[in-house]
Specification:
- With about 220 residues, the chain is α+β, with helices and mostly antiparallel strands.
- The chain has a domain at about 5-65 and about 125-210: 2-Layer Sandwich (Alpha-Beta Plaits).
- About 15% of the residues lie in helices and about 25% in strands.
- It has helices spanning about 20-25, 70-75, 100-105, 130, 140, 175-180, 185-190, and strands spanning about 5-10, 35-45, 55-65, 80-85, 90, 115, 120, 150, 160-165, 180-185, 195-200, 210.
- It has a four-stranded mixed β-sheet. A two-stranded antiparallel sheet has the order 2-3.
- It is globular, with a radius of gyration of 18 Å.
- Bound molecules: iron/sulfur cluster (2 copies).
- One iron/sulfur cluster (SF4) binds near residues 23, 36 and 124.
């Protein structure tokens, strides 16, 4: 089984919301609901103020389904609508969903919601329809800061990929060429170590998504 995930380099995220908007567009998410939200964390105090600059820091945190290894939403399912798919992602079989919202209440990150029109629960699918064809998830493909990277955890985050920089593709390159060109995280990442790699709080669900944050204090519990 694959263990697909997204890693976000928070030192590159500029909080532009392109990921959120791209996702809503490609996934037809209802107005007022989101499969990915971008939170502002801070400002929080940091270091000693020595009269040189304010002693505050902040960062942006894109939040969505973390496609956990031990998902709480799957444990509470009364009709087996929520399940672990063959690629390791967590999916909802809408034909089995009865809209009871047990999974919404069990879910630790508040990113599931009830589609009022269809009376089924929805959330990020990790763009399984795109990744099955070798494409990047939409939020990775359209990240304004080239801060999001997609890959298989078994291959390590240095091998996660984002779109290549179009300005380095040369003249006469078509949109498809640019769209399909990739670069690895190791190609553009600034140095980081294990202490810079974080997960959202783990309440037994073992979230798979990763966040890299250097030089600032991660505000969440691991
Ligand atoms: S992976 Fe796809 S469905 Fe999930 S947040 Fe990104 S764009 Fe939306
Ligand atoms: S599109 Fe990229 S840079 Fe913009 S908010 Fe989302 S993760 Fe951050």
């Amino acid at each position: 089984m694959s263990h697909y995930a997204i890693m976000t380099d928070l030192n590159r995220c500029v909080g532009c919301l392109s990921c959120s908007v791209a996702c809503k567009t490609v996934s037809n998410v209802p107005i007022g609901s989101f499969w990915i939200k971008v939170l502002r964390v801070g400002p929080n105090k940091c270091g000693d103020y020595q009269g040189k600059r304010p002693n505050i820091e902040t960062y942006f945190l894109p939040m969505q389904c973390q496609h956990c290894k031990d998902p709480e939403c799957v444990k509470v399912r009364p009709t087996e609508a929520s399940h672990i798919a063959a690629d390791g992602t967590i999916q909802i079989d809408k034909s089995k969903c009865i809209g009871c919202q047990f999974c919404v209440m069990a879910y630790p990150y508040n990113v599931r919601y009830l589609n009022e029109d269809e009376r089924v629960v929805e959330k990020c699918t990790l763009c399984t329809q795109k990744t099955a064809q070798g494409e990047l998830p939409q939020c990775v493909a359209q990240c304004g800061g080239r801060a999001r990277f997609f890959g298989d955890l078994d291959e390590g985050i240095d091998n996660f990929e984002c779109p290549a920089n179009p300005t380095k593709q040369g003249k006469g390159v078509s949109y498809d060429d640019v769209h399909n060109a990739r670069q690895k995280y190791s190609d553009i990442a600034k140095p980081y170590d294990a202490s810079d790699v974080h997960h959202l709080p783990n309440v037994g669900n073992n979230p798979k998504f990763l966040y890299v944050l250097r030089g600032r204090t991660w505000q969440g519990k691991e």
